[in-house]
Amino acid sequence: MQRAEDNRLHYVFYLDLDQFKVVNDTCGHAAGDELLRQIPSIMAPLIRKSDVLARLGGDEFGLILEDSSYESAEKIDLSIIKAISEYRFGWADKVFRVGVSIGIVEVNDSIASAENILKWTDSACYVAKDEGRNTFHFYTPSDEVMIQREQEMGWLFLIEQALQEDKFELFAQPIVSVDSTNDAPHNYELLIRMRNENDQILPPGAFLPAAERYEKMAAIDRWVFAQAITTLAKNPKLLDGAGYFSVNLSAQSISDESFLDFLVELLELNSKIANKLCIEITETAVISNMMVAMNFISRLKKIGVRFALDDFGSGLSSFGYLKSLPVDYLKIDGLFVKGIANDPIDFAMVKSIHDVGNLMGLKTIAEFVENEDILNELRKIEVDYAQGYGIGKPSPLSLLINS
């Protein structure tokens, strides 16, 4: 950094091996350690004697190119990627291919700290992984992808803080019968919100994308289900006065066997909750791991839990998979519902989903019901339930309890 002040350029690489975990998991840590010893010998002939190559930890390496140029840095990173991708690592009777993703930062006289260099190379490396792995990404201050990633990393910190300091909160939104003559009790969807350091309520669209990207959804789902079930158990009047309470579940949690055990145990401790609980899962979450999802659903249905297929109609194979899924409700994608009063195609889509669902004995729920016009169209189709700002906005669950 001091030499960069003399208008000299240097480049820092952050290299992360791709598929290293496969070697470790398949053949054990001894094989992983041997692979880590061999990787530097592949890279060393491709760099200059003046360059500094080091292992940073795990399967991550760092490289400093002093007094270099952009063209030289690019040539070196391409040669490293090519050499590692062509390398075959053998252990016992198995042969593995590995790759490397590289994040690169140019060190010039505008760089303020070594901490920034390390942060930016790390972020650039993750962008390279997102772009398909076995490639590289140069950091630039105006890089929109990098800016987005840095923002997500900021959300990741806030998510961790919220989990540790209990800054999440449950809101409830009513799901009501479309038939105005039906006096059945309201159902409710429980939705997560987060409070920031200024005690402002943050919507899930702000922080859940980062949670999904960095695999924090299972931790958030554990908080949501634990909070929802224990709160409902402590408020029998609320529980008895409602039809059911629905809670969203992520694909990450469905694939996590320990989450299923956690949920079953939680429901066994609060035995009156299961038949009042409806779990909402998306079509894509089910289809991405059908066997695991089917086991998850069947095990919980045995103890009385209901299931809703969320955002139905958004996927290309919706109807094809529907026959295989033991769900109770179809939540019609709000994309179609919003335009139902003005667009005959949206009307036809909603009607076809309801007709098929009705034929299969499933109840249908229309999302994004924003006004009376939409509600009237849903009555024509005889959709069962409606949810949206035209029905009722989400409000703190505590208000519902105290009402």
Please provide a written account of the structure:
With 403 residues, the chain is α/β, with parallel strands linked by helices. The protein folds into two domains: 3-141, Reverse transcriptase/Diguanylate cyclase domain (Alpha-Beta Plaits, 2-Layer Sandwich); 152-402, EAL domain (TIM Barrel). Helix content is 47%, strand content 23%. The chain contains 17 helices and 17 strands. The chain has helices spanning 20-27, 29-43, 70-86, 114-130, 144-165, 204-213, 217-234, 236-241, 251-254, 257-269, 283-287, 290-301, 318-322, 334-337, 344-359, 372-381, 397-402, and strands at residues 10-18, 52-57, 60-65, 88-91, 94-97, 99-107, 136-138, 168-177, 187-195, 201-202, 245-248, 277-282, 306-312, 329-332, 363-366, 385-386, 395-396. The strands form three sheets. It has an eight-stranded mixed barrel with strand order 8-9-11-12-13-14-15-16, surrounded by four helices. Strands 2-3-1-6-7 form a five-stranded mixed β-sheet. Strands 4-5 form a two-stranded antiparallel ribbon. A hairpin with a 2-residue loop joins strand 2 (52-57) and strand 3 (60-65). Helix 5 packs across helix 6 (204-213). It is elongated and about 85 Å long.
SSE layout and pairings?
Layout: E1 10-18, H1 20-27, H2 29-43, E2 52-57, E3 60-65, H3 70-86, E4 88-91, E5 94-97, E6 99-107, H4 114-130, E7 136-138, H5 144-165, E8 168-177, E9 187-195, E10 201-202, H6 204-213, H7 217-234, H8 236-241, E11 245-248, H9 251-254, H10 257-269, E12 277-282, H11 283-287, H12 290-301, E13 306-312, H13 318-322, E14 329-332, H14 334-337, H15 344-359, E15 363-366, H16 372-381, E16 385-386, E17 395-396, H17 397-402
Parallel strand pairs: 6-7, 9-11, 11-12, 12-13, 13-14, 14-15, 15-16
Antiparallel strand pairs: 1-3, 1-6, 2-3, 4-5, 8-9, 8-16, 8-17, 9-10
Helix pairs in contact: 1-2, 4-5, 5-6, 7-10
